[in-house]
Each structure stands twice: as structure tokens, then as C-alpha cells.
Amino acid sequence: MSNKYLWWQRGIIYQVYPRSFMDGYGDGIGDLRGVAARLDYLQWLGVDAIWISPFYQSPMADFGYDVSDYKGIHPMFGTDEDFDDLISKAHEREIRVILDFVPNHTSEEHPWFVESRSSRGNPKRDWYLWADPAPDGGPPNNWLSVFGGGAWEWDEATEQYYYHAYLKEQPDLNWRKPEVQKEMLDTMRFWLDRGVDGLRVDVIWHMIKDDQLRDNPPNPDHEPSMSPFESLLPVYTTDRPEVHDVVAMMRGVLDEYDERMMIGEMYLPTERLVTYYGKNGEGVHMPHNLQLIVMPWDARRIAATIDTYEGALPPGAWPNWVLGNHDKPRLATRVGPGQARVAAVLLLTLRGTPTLYYGDEIGMHAVDIPPDKVQDPWEKNVPGLGLGRDPSRTPMQWDGTPNAGFCPADVEPWLPVADDYEENNVQAESEDPESMLSLYRRLISLRRDEPALAVGSYAPVVTPGDLLAYVRENDGRKFLIVLNLGHEAQTFDPDERVFRGRVILGTHLDRDGEALAGALSVRGDEGLVVELTS
Ligand code: GLC
Question: Average pLDDT of 125-141?
Fold first, then answer.
């Protein structure tokens, strides 16, 4: 494929949630040795890079997103040798490794915070966001924590509040402080020097807060079923203009190296999202485009989102798409098993780097977690609204043996294994040409073979109802993608032009090779890739 494109532009990224991917130590919790043991699978699947959620030292209040040592590996996940071994084995297989970097907040047990809270006069006091009480003695303003409750925690000993966007065990760093910037940028270099190919930056849009601590306004669209955090619009706590200076500093570090990249996590509408590409190459390489995860599964809305995004990308910006992650409901449960196959075709034929979430390629669904097995602090803080993330973090299903081959049969995995693991697992699906896994493999292989799909242009085709259609093209090779996002059959018959070609891939195997001249009938829950001759 053309060398004009970098690995993260041509490639496919696969997110590994290390607690749940593969247990290499036999304690019921996944780890780095487990990831290394499954690299052959990832190579067989055909992905180009893995993004691994945090495995650093942490008290695990938020399962590793509360870091107490940015340069140390939690013994539960392995040793420095395990890490080096994983990097070298991944690179031998031409799989790049992207780490999760969590710069917005530390753990309350990080030595910096321990010092910071020790006294008002401590030199690290303003490495975090401390503020005096409001005149009534309450919190300095109305800011809320994403995970429920207020965002300010009172510190009895020093009689001030500190700000935490997430748990109170996750105090936010003060990124306006040059010493904080220096330490954190050096941490990036530490991992890049160890051979890491990229960083996924956690909650990058949160990194700077309003320095006047202004109240967030009420959200007029808030409904009781929504998270309490969403009762306010976080306009003074997220997406502040100065965050772009921080992003530029981080980008500067990546640019000290060859072909390293940075993904930024952000839940923002298109017009805000694209600002993170930055001016003059100073931004995030890929501001994660999480829109398909949070929007209704509706053909017209998705078409509008794709076209708006395509139209809003600044010159030189590389698009990307994500359909699932460790924070949101499982794709197969959200859209249903039939549509999950259509979604796979969408993700792997859109223009822009796809990120797959582990297990989606075998159609893993949300697993009901009994109350006594709940792990996620969000569910514990705000129960009953379906915000808990455990159902999307259950052990990967490798085979039909007890515990699905994730951990030894006589060990209890940290979260329950889905009860359909005997049929729904990598081994069984790899032997079934009609399985979800076989569909993903065919799609990935086609995308890797066809520059038109990996890096080609995108053009929408106007279609009504539940159909979504577009053409990808590169160097004279053209593919028409027609997806039925509904359950009823539809006819694809655009007025504006006549397409001719042959189906080369579909959600259902029986369409392969079918000739297309003009109209095309598309069954419910069906997606087709047509190689065009005109
Ligand atoms: C990000 C992570 C999420 C974590 C939160 C706080 O949104 O993806 O898992 O809980 O940041 O670090």
C-alpha cells in the first residue's frame, strides 16, 4: 500500500482492556503476559496496532485510571520484563503498541498529591487545584463530578477543597503549572523511549479548567434518566481554549520521535472535536471520534454525522471512527446482533482509522452483573441508571472450556464470563465461515488489500429510509457500500447514477459474486460491499 500514509492512517487499531483480555498469571485478572500470549491471534485477525488501557501502579479505585506511579507497572499486570517482552513480540509481528496516558488526574495516593495535601505551604500544593470554600462554607462553585456528586472534596487538615473531575480518589492536576507540564512530558518521553508507538490521552478535553472558577450553567435538556453530571453544561470545566496550548506541548514531544502518534479522548460534537487537530500540525493526530457510539442507530442521522464530519475536517486532518470502548455499552447489545454485523461493515469501510474494542469482533454482548459482583465505582456511586461499565468489560471468550479460556478453570475471574461462551468464542467462531469473527476477518483482510477502502476518498450516495450508502475510491478502483440499518428489506435504486459491479463481501455469504446493474435489493440487517466497474 502507498507509503504516503503512515501506519496509524492505513491501519486498524484494537483496544485491549488488559484486566479482561487474557490472564497470564492465573489469578483471574488479565495481564501483560496474557496480551503477549494472544498476539498471534491479533496478527491472524489482521490488526495493525493495539491500544492497551492502563496497567500502571494504581490503587485501582477506577481500575487503573487512578495512577500512583506513571512509570511503574502494577505487579498485578506484570513486570518491566513482561512489558519489554510484549513490545518486542508485538513489533516482531508488525503490531504497534499504543499506551493509555492519564495526564488529567493522578491517584490520591500519588506521592505528588500526598505532598500537595500535606500543607498549604508545600511546594507541590499548586500542582493540584485547591480552592477556598465559598462564603457560606460550601464548595467553591457548582462543578460536578462525572462519576456522581460534587467535584470538590473538602480537606479537613488544610481547610481547602480540591477538584476532581472523576472520583475523589482522582484529584485533577494543575496543567497551568510548568513543573507539572515538565514531569508529565518527561513521562511521555519515558514510554516513547521504551519503544511505544503512540499514546491515547485520557480525557484530554478536561485538562484545563476555568481559572475564574465560574459556575457551569444548567443543561436545559437534562432528563432524570440521564447522568446527574449532565444536569449542568460543563462549559467551564472542559474544552477550555487554553487546552490547545497543552496539546501543542504534548504534540511537540511526539514530534521529537519518528512516526509516533497521539489519540485524544473526547466526547464532543463535530465542530468542537475537529479543533483538536490543531493549527499548523500542533494538535492531536486523531481526536477520537466517538460520535457513532453515543448517537441513535439511525441511517439518516449517521449519514448526516459522517458527512458533517467529512466536511468539517481541516486540511490534512486524518479521520477516525470508533464503535465501542470500555466505557460504553457493548455494540452487539446496543444495536442488536443483526445490526452488529452491519456496524462491522460500516466501521471497516468508512474513511478513517477504525478502532475496534476487544470482543466486539466475536459479537460479545453486555453481561448482567449481579449486585454483589459489581466492580465499577460509577455504578456504585450512581446505581440503577445503566451507567456501570462492568457489562462491557467481561473476560474475553477464547474457547469453550470453563472460564472461556481466559483464566484457569478453578479460579474466579474478576468479572463473570458471559453465559453463552461455549458457542460464542474465538475458537468456535474461527471455524464457522458465517460467524461474526469470520466477517470481521474478511472485512479486515479486504481493507488491508484495497487502498480504496483503507485510504481512498469518500463520497456519499443519497439514499432514503434505513439505507446508508457511499463510494470509496483510489487510483481507479471503486467500491460501493450499501448498508441496511433496519430490519426490513429495502431497494437501493439511486436516481442520480447507475452503478454496475459485483458483490465482493457481505454480512451474509450468499450474496458473494452477485452482479449488480442498477437497483439492488438489500435484506433487513444486511450490508454489502460492491466492487464497481462503472
Ligand atoms: C476516561 C476513561 C475512563 C475513566 C475516566 C477517568 O474516560 O476512558 O475509563 O474512568 O477517563 O480517568
Answer: 97
**pTM for this prediction:** 0.98
Is-contact 54 70, C-beta < 8 A? no
Nearest residue to 155 via CA among 189, 136, 132:
132
Which residues form ligand 1's pocket by a CB distance below 6 Å? 62, 65, 102, 166, 202-203, 265, 326-327
The answer, yes or no, to whether residue 3 has pLDDT greater than 90, is no
Measured N-to-C along each axis, helices 436-449 and 337-349 cross at an angle, to the nearest 10 degrees, of 10
**For residue range 379-417, what is the model confidence (pLDDT) as tens digits?**
999 998 889 999 999 999 999 999 999 999 999 999 999
Among 1.20.120.160, 3.30.70.20, 3.30.565.10, 2.60.40.1180, what is the CATH number of 457-532? 2.60.40.1180
pLDDT computed for residue 384 by the predictor: 86
Which residue's CA is the nearest one to ligand 1's atom 3? 327
124 CB-side CA count, 13 A: 13
Catalytic annotation, residues: 202, 256
Domain ranges of the chain: 457-532
Residue in 17, 51, 62 to alter for ligand 1 test, most ligand atoms within 8 A of Cβ: 62
